[in-house]
Design goal:
The protein is of the alpha+beta class. It folds into four domains: 121 residues, Acyl-CoA dehydrogenase/oxidase, N-terminal domain (Butyryl-Coa Dehydrogenase, subunit A, domain 1, Orthogonal Bundle); 101 residues, Butyryl-CoA Dehydrogenase, subunit A, domain 2 (Beta Barrel), CATH 2.40.110; 156 residues, Butyryl-CoA Dehydrogenase, subunit A, domain 3; 160 residues, Butyryl-CoA Dehydrogenase, subunit A, domain 3, CATH 1.20.140.
Length: 594
């Protein structure tokens, strides 16, 4: 593999603009745009997952961590660990799309996927972005090859989602040569196998700062493995720091600026989690379809039963939309990074700023991807019936493993608040033209019924639904802002419902743009987009009603509900027939296919 530049057809978009702008199919990046190199890496990673990881899942789940460590070194030999590491430090320095492709295709085991992601993502990027040349030279080549395993230690028993509330303290010694750390860290992935930890503490109880600590450092204790519901084959331990002396040269970044490291890395962690969710869903879906073909009941395969076909269709559509959503967003991030000078002294800061531009999309990906995976693994277990509930079949393990994703990288509740709050903040800063868009929609709906825009093509109805969803999102945001003003952030239920609308707008638009970009080459893609649009708009309707009921009463409520019904009016789609047709293709293939 080389670090050659990858052509990206994506239009340079600004974060959050999906609610107020209409893009053309040619403006977005989709899986169909993968370069020859990206396809090659995807195939290589998938082969590694099938041939190396899957045959050793039983050993991984039995906590034989030497197996995982060996697999990590083999992944390092293939270059899979160094995709985000610059070439001068032993990595490949490839694009963000390729990085997401690897996270996607390697995710056939929840446990190993966590080991891989904790190392290659949040374990590596802080050093890539904030390390001194000396720190990078010392550690990055070992991390890129898998010789050393990395871990990221932020969470504490009293500071999970509230990361800035950590209690771990750091004090400079009198001779100025070391920091002495005291405190504890909880739920640290890779802790039992890690050689290098990125640990967060407050200098003098105030300055939030990151430190690089090597395993074996005096005063650093890795406690016993946690006994977890899922991802049992990944190492998760608490850390104890008792007068742990860390050389001053191992301070990462700037003293008091550790929050930049913690939060900027999370944006990448979120979109990579979504990519892993797609890969995990693809694997679980295959297990479900194959069992449905083999299981005979009442004299025929259960794949011929309508309610099983419905589950298969739901899963296939979820994977299709998830692919559109993740690669559209990561493609937009890559387009935003294009043209940056890698030799500029501010290069890493510029990279972080441009990724942060898409913080709302990264949170949407995390929420949507983790919840899509949850539905797929649930359906796979249900298709297996009683067998799905026993450890002999993979459905049980996938079901348990998927649950953590709604907690990782910020809970889905926190991310829903981020989604809405970030959009409002950007609007108030004048960096997103959301307020004029809200005013335009409010003026339009209050003026009375108007003719709806007409669209052409096989997805004309879905385009109309998308337009209505955007208007509903803007209308509800305006109504909520009028009702609560600056206190809107305290109305978490309303914020969450608004986030659900925003999530579905981005997901539905991504699916439509991907399908339209195929220019009629896939009848199956059209069916899946229609199927998803019906489900998506139901979510938008429910969330919008929830907001309106919370912000209005009496005559105002009746007026706003009349507007809501006008915006939400549409003809239903026959998802029963669509679902059967989608399922038939998947059953014949025995897996997700397009």
């Amino acid at each position: 593999m080389s670090a050659a530049a990858v052509e990206n057809p994506t239009k340079r978009a600004s974060g959050g603009s999906f609610l107020i702008e209409d893009l053309r199919p040619e403006d977005v990046f989709t899986p169909e745009d993968f370069s020859a190199e990206q396809k090659q890496i995807a195939e290589m990673t998938a082969n590694f997952a099938e041939e190396k990881i899957l045959p050793q899942v039983a050993e991984i789940e039995a906590k034989k961590f030497d197996v995982s460590v060996k697999l990590m070194r083999e992944a390092g030999e293939l270059g899979l660990l160094g995709v985000d590491v610059p070439e001068e430090y032993g990595g490949l320095g490839l694009d963000k799309v390729t990085s997401a492709v690897i996270a996607d295709r390697i995710a056939v085991s929840g446990s190993f996927s966590v080991t891989f992601s904790a190392h290659a993502g949040i374990g590596t990027l802080p050093l890539v972005w904030y390390g001194t040349p000396e720190q990078k030279a010392k550690y990055l080549s070992k991390i890129a090859t898998g010789e050393w395993i990395a871990a990221y230690a932020l969470s504490e028993s009293s500071a999970g989602s509230d990361a800035m509330n950590i209690r771990t303290q750091a004090k400079l010694t009198e001779d100025g040569r070391h920091y002495v750390l005291n405190g504890e860290k909880m739920w640290i992935s890779n802790a039992g196998i890690a050689n290098l930890f990125t640990v967060f503490a407050k200098i003098d109880g105030e300055k939030f700062t990151a430190f690089l600590i090597e395993a074996g450092t005096l005063g650093l204790t890795v406690a016993a493995e946690e006994h977890k519901l899922g991802i049992r084959g990944s190492s998760t331990c608490p850390l104890r720091l008792e007068d742990c002396k860390v050389p001053v040269e191992n301070l990462l970044g700037e003293a008091g600026k550790g929050h930049h490291i913690a939060f900027n890395v999370l944006n990448v962690g979120r979109y990579k989690l979504a990519a892993s969710a797609i890969g995990g869903a693809r694997k679980s879906f295959r297990d479900g379809v194959r069992y449905a073909k083999e299981r005979i009941a009442f004299g025929k395969p259960i794949s011929s039963f309508g309610l099983v076909q419905e589950k298969i269709a739901d899963g296939a559509v979820g994977i299709y939309v998830g692919e559109a959503l993740i690669y559209r967003t990561v493609g937009a991030i890559e387009a935003a990074l294009a043209g940056l000078d890698k030799h500029s002294p501010t290069y890493t800061q510029d990279v972080q700023k441009r990724i942060e531009e898409f913080a709302v999309e990264c949170s949407i990906l995390k929420v949507w991807g983790s919840e899509m995976l949850e539905r797929v693994v649930d359906s796979t277990l249900q298709i297996h019936g009683g067998y799905g509930y026993v450890e002999e079949f993979p459905a049980e393990r996938s079901y348990r493993d998927a649950r953590i994703n709604r907690i990782f990288e910020g809970t889905n509740e926190i991310n829903r608040l981020i989604i809405t709050g970030w959009m409002i903040k950007r609007a108030l800063q004048g960096r997103l033209a959301l307020l004029p868009a809200i005013k335009q929609v409010m003026d339009e709906v209050m003026a009375g019924p108007t003719a709806k825009a007409s669209y052409e093509g096989p997805l004309a109805e879905e385009r109309a639904l998308l337009s209505s969803a955007k208007k509903l999102g803007l209308f509800c945001a305006g109504a909520a802002s009028q009702r609560f003003g600056t206190d809107l952030a305290e109305q978490q239920e309303v914020m969450g419902a608004l986030a659900d609308v925003l999530i579905e707008v981005l997901a539905l638009e991504s699916a439509i743009l991907r399908t339209e970009k195929m220019a009629g080459k896939s009848a199956l893609a059209i069916k899946m987009t229609k199927y998803y649009a019906a489900r998506s708009f139901r979510i938008v309707e429910t969330a919008s009603e929830r907001v309106i009921a919370a912000v209005a009463e009496g005559d105002m409520l009746r007026t706003q509900m009349a507007i809501f019904r006008r915006l939400a009016k549409h003809e239903p789609v026959n998802t029963v027939t669509l679902g059967r047709e989608i399922s038939a293709v998947m059953v014949e293939a025995g897996r997700y296919t397009l």
